[in-house]
Amino acid sequence: MNPIKDIKIIKISSKGQMATPLEFRRRLNLASGTQLVITLNDEGQMVLQKLPSSLDWQELTADIPVEQVNIDQDGYYDVKKTPSFDEWMHEE
After folding, report:
1. Low-confidence ranges of the chain (pLDDT < 70)
2. Taking the model in full, what pTM does it have?
3. CA 5 to chain centre
4. Claim to verify: residue 54 and residue 18 sit in the same structural domain
């Protein structure tokens, strides 16, 4: 389990809403519209996690090779034109 780095006390409103402290929002780059997932673990703790944004996904996938794979009617493709695809097809 990760050590607690910072603690803030918040209140739940009459509508069940909670406000995230500004310092946390800044440190985690949380803005209006940011999606979070909330889970309840076995210890009875609520855990909030930021979902990756479309920009996060673009950065995460930027180095993934992209190849146009043309497969003929017999299911064959040109290995020389699609080396990454061929490598992926033969992974164990």
Report:
1. 1-3
2. 0.53
3. 22
4. yes
